[in-house]
Design a protein that fits this description.
With 116 residues, this protein is of the alpha/beta class. The protein is built from 2 helices and 9 strands.
Amino acid sequence: MFGIPGKAPVTLTPQAVAQITALMAREGAHGLRLGVKKGGCAGMEYTLDVAAEAGPHDEIVEQDGARVMIAPMAQMFLIGTEIDYEIGLLDSGFRFRNPNVVESCGCGESVKFRED
């Protein structure tokens, strides 16, 4: 919808691929749906949900068996994003390296996107 023809709007690191394929297998899911919503101290938050099927206007990214479906309203905010999965001493989870982010809150839960 908003992507560059022939180029995936998001990319996945090998760690993200491994986590997504494990979640898909465990949950019997078609993939993970990625979106954004208003919230948090910086203004927007990422959403990531297990999905039984793709929506009619989802942008589907498949990489090495992992499937991410990007909700229509999130597509313009996510172009160029790299999705990673990090395991740390205190927390583990998906991390988004998004070139469209201009600000994030101190806890890292919410972001502000470039407005141009």
